[in-house]
Design a protein that fits this description.
With 449 residues, the protein is of the alpha/beta class. It is built from 16 helices and 15 strands. Helix 10 packs antiparallel against helix 14. The structure holds adenosine-5'-triphosphate and zinc ion. The site of zinc ion has 4 residues, from helix 7. Its cofactor is Zn(2+). It is found in: Cytoplasm. Keywords: Aminoacyl-tRNA synthetase, ATP-binding, Cytoplasm, Ligase, Metal-binding, Nucleotide-binding, Protein biosynthesis, Zinc. InterPro entries: Cys-tRNA-ligase, Cys-tRNA-synt_Ia_DALR, Cys-tRNA/MSH_ligase, CysS_C, Rossmann-like_a/b/a_fold, tRNA-synt_1_cat_dom, tRNAsynth_Ia_anticodon-bd.
């Protein structure tokens, strides 16, 4: 078994992964704020960390993967002010949409999916600990984290205290002791969601929820914390500061992983820029599996420019993989090919893993059954190639040539296995579609009748 290497944003190096407890690998990933449909950029971390979780499950006996749902947030409040919809209806509907969209991309559900509003007590507990230890202060119904109280503040994002303060000077609230201090708790007026707290009725800041939910489900120290690179500052810097100061002596996350941004014409896909496609928009144009492959063709740390051409290429690649599998329709997944495992253990190098899979596909198309078994096994770790070739070609191909060739390969395999009834059934099915087969010395050819 190769060692797993992961790039750690905290040390800015690729490091050998050493679990805190190899009998239970613990990973936390920041989940969606549920006020609107997920766009393709939001899907990137979901697919990337799904592959990380699948790989960890191959390497270790148990993995606990936690991804939260942010269901209290000012973006949610702003949305319901426009629409008048009850908050619980908006967040429940958006969560269900998110689940459906991510399932369409082949992402397995995490082991736990805590909602922020169900963990207010834990957040209050952490805020209290921070106040007691001098890392936070209450002012005008707010509680703020005092960045100057934490000499390590800025370590994750690599910013100096001076840079951080300069950046924060834009809007300085009067109750802040220091411009860089950030909100742990804030007051809610009667028309906004709020909970009773030692500081009056209010609601949590965004960062504290992830400190509370990771602590509750994974403990003070865990293995991997993931999210998009846009979260490094301030979200992850602040999460880390809160957790380390509230639980002295702990490590919080050992390895910080960050996926690069999905872009459109060189700009981050985001709701605020308005340059986004929802996952649903894209699912109307292409199968979920092609979208997933598009996201995995680029290394997770690199920028990925989304284009229709890239999507079309991903679909063609899947046509080829499924053609190779169709040559051996009954072959079960074999052992995971060593070269695929090595690529994934090298900081989740999915482009390299896919290159190996293309070699396997070529071998399978040339008649190598073991290569087809390896291809299926590789597909399991990447969350690809999980449907039958017939199902793929029925749903996915632009023209039916690939489907016909897959059916012919299928028939050939049936004949080799002396399953003549199945071979005849495939011929009859094609004939019903007007496709006539001719068996000759050079194999089977076809024409439209
Ligand atoms: N363009 C993108 N490419 C890759 N990941 C992204 C992109 N935009 C957001 N993410 C990631 O999506 C996850 C969910 O984030 P969140 O729900 O806060 O997004 P959002 O704030 O609604 O998106 P936006 O940036 O469009 O406002 C985070 O891990 C974030 O890093
Ligand atoms: Zn978070």
């Amino acid at each position: 078994m190769p060692d797993l290497y992961l790039h750690n944003s905290l040390t800015r190096r690729k490091e050998r992964f050493e679990p805190a407890d190899s009998s239970n690998i613990r990973m936390y990933v920041c989940g969606p704020t549920v006020y609107d449909l997920a766009h393709l950029g939001n899907a990137r971390p979901v697919v990337v960390y799904d592959v990380v979780a699948r790989l960890l499950r191959r390497l270790y006996p148990k993995v606990t993967y936690v991804r939260n749902i942010t269901d209290v947030d000012d973006k949610i409040n702003a949305r319901i002010r426009e629409t008048g919809e009850p908050i619980s209806a908006l967040t429940a509907r958006t969560t269900a949409d998110f689940h459906a969209d991510m399932a369409a991309l082949g992402a397995l559900p995490p082991d736990r999916e805590p909602r922020a509003t169900a963990h207010i007590a834990e957040m209050i507990m952490i805020v209290q600990r921070l106040i007691e230890s001098g890392h936070a202060y209450a002012a005008e119904g707010h509680v703020l984290f005092a960045v100057k109280s934490d000499p390590d503040y800025g370590k994750l994002s690599g910013r100096s205290q001076e840079e951080l303060l300069a950046g924060a000077r834009v809007e300085v609230a009067p109750y802040k002791r220091d411009p860089g201090d950030f909100v742990l708790w804030k007051p809610s007026s009667d028309d906004l969601p709020g909970w009773d707290s030692p500081w009056g009725r209010g609601r949590p800041g965004w960062h504290i929820e992830c400190s509370a939910m990771s602590w509750k489900y994974l403990g003070e120290t865990f293995d991997i914390h993931g999210g998009g690179s846009d979260l490094i500052f301030p979200h992850h810097e602040n999460e880390m500061a809160q957790s380390l100061c509230a639980f002295p002596g702990s490590h919080f996350a050992h390895t910080w992983m960050h996926n690069g941004m999905l872009q459109v014409n060189g700009e981050k896909m985001s709701k605020s820029l308005g340059n986004f496609f929802t996952v649903r928009d894209v699912l109307a144009k292409a199968p979920g599996e092609a979208i997933r492959l598009l996201l995995l063709r680029t290394h997770y740390r690199s920028l990925l420019d989304f284009s229709d051409q890239g999507l079309a290429e991903a679909k063609k690649e899947l046509d080829r993989f499924y053609r190779a599998l169709a040559a051996f329709p009954d072959v079960p997944a074999g052992d995971l090919p060593a070269a695929v495992l090595e690529a994934l253990c090298d900081d989740i190098n999915t482009p390299q893993a896919l290159a190996v899979m293309h070699e396997l596909a070529a071998q399978a198309l040339a008649g190598d059954r073991a290569a087809a078994a390896g291809l299926r096994a590789a597909g399991l770790v990447l969350g690809l190639l999980q449907q039958s070739p017939e199902a793929w070609f029925r749903g996915g191909a632009d023209d039916d040539t690939a489907a016909i060739e897959a059916a012919i390969a299928d028939r050939l395999a049936a004949r080799k296995a002396r399953d003549f009834a199945r071979a005849d059934a495939i011929r009859a099915e094609l004939a019903a579609q007007g496709i006539l087969l001719e068996d000759g010395p050079k194999g089977t050819t076809w024409r439209r009748g």
